[in-house]
Design a protein that fits this description.
Strand content of chain B: 5-15%
Number of strands of chain B: 3
Strand order of the largest sheet of chain B: 2-1-3
Strand order of the largest sheet of chain A: 3-4-5-6
Number of helices of chain B: 9
Largest sheet of chain A: 4 strands, antiparallel
Radius of gyration of chain A: 28 Å
Strand content of chain A: 35-45%
Shape of chain B: elongated
Shape of chain A: globular
Oligomer: heterodimer
Radius of gyration of chain B: 22 Å
Mean pLDDT of chain B: 80
Largest sheet of chain B: 3 strands, mixed
Structural class of chain B: mainly alpha
Mean pLDDT of chain A: 80
Low-confidence stretches of chain B: 1-19, 98-106
Structural class of chain A: mainly beta
Distance between the termini of chain A: 84 Å
Helix content of chain A: 10-25%
Distance between the termini of chain B: 52 Å
Number of strands of chain A: 18
Chain lengths: 331, 196
């Protein structure tokens, strides 16, 4: 397809000489052991290539060499790259201010990037919203529709990519105190939403409700984003009750929650396996299970009395055995 | 110019529309002194060359000291193919008055077929050894040919995707220059990516 000017048609001898010339000048180390052909590519080009990869591959790329690591983290290039964000949302209340309630985000990411807008204004039609739970980068929100303040929806969103999806409304969002999110991107890109529906929300007549456990959990509803439907099961375990702002943690497909009366309730995403684990023994009676957290693939419980902080690690759900890992004196 | 169907139809469109596209040929000179000719239209797929033509620097041929002959001929092949495709799209839009229903259907089928042709042409263009692929990237970058740069970069990305760290180092002959501590630190930070 290309015409060549006759005067410069290379003879066979000349052609091979040209190839040798190319070999020497452009690729100094070509064909030599331990050469780096990518050294010829500029940083901009390498960043372009890496930015086309899914996030998981980008993380592998960070470990290839110093050049790749520094490129991916570099201020100039990282806007193209998917990045991880670390931080937390919290709400402040100030009677002397309008609005009284305000939401903040504290960004603990490397160099505070990517940025996160705590108002989540990218969610459409949200008159007002509560953040109910966060799990591995996704948020579970409860939105009141701007058009109809009585209509309520769950929305699961990613505050950095601003992608969101609504979860079909059940009867319960307005009545249910405890809804939690289960999401583990290392396993699957699908998520689960858990709703713990207590007796009162379910509509059990008052005289039939459990006397000892106020707002005993009656039904567990689990939504799977893969199946796109809610599954309901009557809770046979317990009895137990879960306070509205109970601390919870999702790990290895199991949701762990702090429950009333010194209990930890754990259930898997299918709703098939349940564990009710009493917290480690304490000398003083304190009804506060909120020291539950997960770290490095294990479930922990942090407990504090006047003189010391104790960290326990759960050895086994089935036996409920805890091992004391650390004792830290307050003094 | 090659007598491919796309080229043939683009020539006829020039006759019918009396188009402003000139038939002017541009001479491009590779780093090793070989001359190649391309239509102005194809050459202008390179923004770098387009600017030189517009600035009047192209009359004696354009030297491209960064691009060896082997690569330049592949680049020109790409530009010829894609310039013709762009022209076809314009042609279908330009003559709505002449099109009746049958013509429309035929044109749609033709462009679907041509799109497939183009895709397989692109795929075979970048199915080359690593060194050549990187040379294409550098040339496309230097010449500012976005489509070719995207194509070649995507090919490299596809080769990296789903590979382990060790495999990437092996394929691209990259030296692991981390100290033991540095490597441990960066792997720990990204540990979740290594599950499975």
């Amino acid at each position: 397809p290309n015409s060549r000017s006759p005067a410069q048609t290379p003879s066979p001898a000349q052609t091979s000489m040209h190839l040798v010339v190319i070999g020497r000048s452009n690729k100094k180390k070509k064909g030599m052991e331990g050469s780096d052909p990518m050294a010829t590519l500029t940083d901009d080009i390498l960043a372009d290539i890496i930015s086309r990869l899914p996030y998981k591959s980008t993380c592998c790329c960070k470990c290839v060499s110093k050049r790749w690591r520094d490129l991916i983290y570099h201020r100039h290039h990282r806007k193209k790259m998917p990045q991880s964000v670390v931080g937390f949302f919290y709400e402040g209340y100030n009677e002397c201010r309008s609005p009284r309630k305000a939401r903040y985000f504290t960004n603990l990411s490397r160099e505070y990037y990517p940025l996160v807008d705590p108002s989540l204004s990218f969610l459409p039609n949200c008159g007002s919203l509560d953040i109910l739970d966060a799990c591995n980068g996704l948020l579970l929100c409860r939105c009141w529709k701007a058009a109809d303040p009585l209509k309520l929806d769950y929305v699961v969103c990613n505050p950095t990519t601003e992608k969101w999806v609504s979860v079909p409304a059940t009867e319960w969002p307005s009545k249910v105190g405890v809804a939690r999110l289960g999401f583990d991107p290392a396993v699957t890109s699908h998520f689960h939403v858990f709703e713990f529906i207590d007796e009162e929300a379910w509509g059990v007549p008052e005289d039939e409700q459990d006397d000892d456990f106020y707002r005993r959990i009656h039904t567990l509803a689990i939504y799977s984003s893969k199946a796109g439907v809610w599954k309901y099961q009557t809770v046979k375990q317990g009895p137990f009750a879960i306070p509205k702002h109970s601390v919870s943690s999702f790990l290895n497909g199991v949701l762990n929650l702090a429950a009333d009366y010194n209990l930890i309730v754990a259930v898997d995403v299918e709703g098939d396996n349940w564990w009710l684990v009493p917290i480690p023994e304490r000398p003083d009676y304190v009804d506060d299970t909120n020291g539950i957290f997960t770290s490095q693939g294990r479930v922990y419980f942090a407990d504090s009395d006047r003189s010391k902080l104790s960290i326990w690690i759960l050895e086994d759900y089935a036996t409920g055995k805890w091992t004391l890992k650390h004792n830290v004196s307050h003094l | 110019m090659a007598a491919t169907p796309a080229d043939a139809s683009s020539s006829s469109s020039e006759a019918v529309v009396g188009g402003e596209k000139s038939n002017k040929m541009i001479t491009l000179i590779s780093s090793d002194g070989e001359s190649f000719e391309a239509t102005e239209e194809a050459a202008k797929m390179s923004v770098t060359i387009k600017h030189m033509i517009e600035d009047g620097c192209a009359d004696d041929g354009i030297p491209l000291p960064n691009v060896p002959a082997k690569i330049l001929s592949m680049v020109i092949e790409y530009c010829n193919k894609h310039a013709a495709d762009a022209d076809d799209t314009n042609k279908h839009v330009a003559d709505p008055a002449d099109a009746d229903e049958d013509d429309d259907n035929n044109n749609n089928n033709a462009s679907a077929g041509e799109k497939e042709d183009l895709k397989s042409f692109d795929a075979s263009l970048v199915a080359v050894d690593q060194a050549t692929l990187f040379d294409i990237i550098l040339a496309a970058n230097f010449l500012s040919i976005k489509g070719l740069l995207d194509l070649a970069c995507q090919k490299v990305a596809d080769d990296i995707k789903d590979k382990s760290v060790e495999e990437v180092r092996e394929i691209f002959k990259i030296e692991n220059d981390f100290t033991k501590e540095e490597e441990e630190a960066v792997r720990k930070e990204n540990a979740w990516a290594f599950n499975e």
